[in-house]
Design a protein that fits this description.
With 520 residues, the protein is an alpha/beta fold. The protein is built from 17 helices and 18 strands. The strands form 3 sheets. Strands 10-9-6-13-14-15-16-17-18 form a 9-stranded mixed beta sheet, with helices on both faces. It has a 5-stranded parallel beta sheet with strand order 3-2-1-4-5, sandwiched between helices. Strand 13, helix 12 (353-362) and strand 14 (366-370) form a beta-alpha-beta unit. Helix 15 runs antiparallel to helix 16. The longest helix is centred in the C-terminal third of the chain and has 15 residues, at 482-496.
Length: 520
């Protein structure tokens, strides 16, 4: 009974969840009352210690389960400490009898496996509607299944996130300064409520479908007879790219998302596409008989995600006239029904001059990205469009359009805005963050809002721009303040660069938890 309690070898307290369940079952038979606490506990502080002490008084054995690293939804740079270190820190406390690392996203499986008599949470969770994950309801249901009950401790509270943000330099200095000031003006709960209200926004996304394929391979060396590097094939996966990625991100916040795109009849990839689209999205597929669906196949060394070579399946000529007319008729009828039309023009032949004119003429609010990539460099510029309500492009795309390689970025934006005097404009700048410019009645006719990068770890940059465009377009359509657009957009981008390509899309709860962590 009480294996490992109070001893100096605290590692004996840390057990796999299944093994711990067997021990607890035996303890239960001997009349012991089991108490469970669960959390991330990223930085062990006095609030946690007093919480555990209060919980221990409610039973005989105190068990603490720790959220596994991959399930910590507090944004880039978190957790600051690995699950192993967090478990060891908690196990070193005398009041704690056992610790397990929970391999599941929530405490529900831990409750079902360990069957505690009592599940103890901090007083923050006593206000159940205030839990943005709504996980407390699932936890209480699991407790009911195993015959347990829930209780809340009422003691001094601290925030690991607040302490880390304030004292441990999780973010670069420019980001820390920005966040310190931004927190004084923006309330996390109020911002999350505003973002939650976007669910009724009616959004149509229009643009090229791209299937991104990653072929993972291991370099073996140069062939002795040829000037090529030989690689060993390992495996591969496919991701929804282009407008598919944008639509998936938007569906995280809106319940009314439709999509218009064109697939190639020769190899449509439709079955693959439909399995990777959010079920809320209503897709309108048109087909061209003279082409395959665009595939960008990257050959990648998996250890560091180094991209070695790309093979593109692409027919980038304009649409056949009959297909173009089908799309135009559809858009002319449907565009006025939507609060927001998001256009991502990747320059692969779908958005011809006639379709562009319809989009500019009939959209109630047009958000626009025109991308420069290896297939269209110099030919696919934002200047193809004469009007938009919101324009979101990156710095190289702006410099190409303006033919200004070295001009200061604000001067360049001011010059560019003269052609789009009524448009909100965002220029993304990678590790330099983003700049949002709004029309103003002031002397310069434009106001600038700069937001630093919020990224602390980069796994893969592919798809980050799509996440930024998707989220900020919705905010622009609802007239969010420019500094809020930059903040939320950079947060979305920071989350996106920690994901391989578009392996997963933006989800509301992780985004909200990250924003709350940033504003703590």
């Amino acid at each position: 009974s009480g294996t490992g309690k109070g001893g100096s070898d605290f590692h004996g307290k840390i057990l796999p969840q299944e093994e711990l369940a067997e021990i607890l079952e035996n303890e239960r038979k001997h009349g012991k009352k089991i108490v469970l606490c669960h959390g991330v506990f990223d930085l062990l502080h006095p609030g946690h210690i007093r919480h555990f002490a209060a919980a221990k008084k409610l039973g005989d054995l105190l068990v603490v389960t720790v959220t596994q690293d991959k399930h910590v939804n507090k944004g880039p740079g978190r957790p600051a400490f690995t699950d192993t270190l967090r478990a060891e820190s908690i196990a070193a406390l005398e009041n704690v009898d056992f610790v397990a690392i929970n391999r599941h996203p929530t405490a529900v499986e831990a409750i079902r496996t360990l069957k505690p008599h009592l599940y103890v949470k901090g007083q923050d969770y006593e206000n159940r509607p205030g839990d943005i994950t709504h996980g407390i309801y699932a936890e209480e249901a699991a407790l009911k299944e195993v015959g347990g009950d829930i209780q809340f401790t009422h003691d001094i509270t601290f925030s690991s996130t607040n302490i880390l943000n304030s004292h441990f330099g999780v973010y670069p200095e420019t980001a820390r300064q920005f966040l310190s000031e931004f927190r004084t003006r923006v309330d996390a709960d109020g911002l999350i409520a505003q973002l939650s209200s976007l669910k009724d926004l009616k959004v149509l996304v229009v643009g090229d479908t791209i299937v991104d394929e990653y072929v993972y391979c291991q370099p073996m060396g140069k062939s002795p007879k040829e000037t090529i590097v030989t690689t060993r094939y390992l495996n591969q996966e496919a991701f929804p790219g282009g407008i598919l990625a944008c639509a998936n991100h938007i569906a995280a916040l809106s319940d009314n998302v439709e999509m218009v795109t064109c697939l190639g009849r020769k190899d449509s990839k439709r079955e693959l596409i439909e399995t990777q689209l959010n079920s809320k999205i209503k897709a309108h597929f048109f087909y061209r008989d003279d082409a395959p669906t665009v595939v960008k196949r990257r050959f990648v060394e998996p250890a560091f995600l180094t991209k070695m070579f790309q093979l593109t399946e692409l027919t980038d000529t304009d649409l056949p006239p009959d297909v173009s007319q089908q799309i135009i008729r559809f858009l002319e009828t449907e565009l006025p029904k939507f609060d927001l039309v998001v256009v991502a023009d990747y320059g692969h032949g779908f958005l011809n001059a006639e379709i562009r004119q319809v989009l500019m003429k009939s959209s109630r609010f047009l958000a626009l990205n025109v991308q420069t990539n290896s297939a269209n460099i110099g030919y696919n510029l934002i200047t193809k469009y004469q009007a938009a309500d919101y324009i979101c492009i990156d710095e190289p795309e702006l410099r190409l359009a303006m033919q200004r390689r070295h001009s200061p970025i604000k001067n360049l934006i001011a010059e560019f805005s003269q052609s789009y005097p009524d448009s909100a404009i965002t220029i993304t700048r990678g590790h330099n963050g983003s700049v949002t410019a709004l029309p103003s009645n002031g002397a310069n006719g434009i106001e600038f809002y700069e937001t630093p990068s919020l990224s602390t770890k980069i796994v893969d940059r592919v798809g980050a721009g799509d996440a930024y465009l998707a989220i900020t377009s919705m905010l622009a359509a609802r007239n969010f303040p420019a500094e809020t657009m930059g903040f939320v957009g950079n947060a979305a981008g920071a989350m996106a660069v920690e994901v391989v390509c578009n392996r997963s899309s933006m989800q509301a709860v992780p985004l909200f938890k990250f924003l709350k962590a940033l504003l703590a």
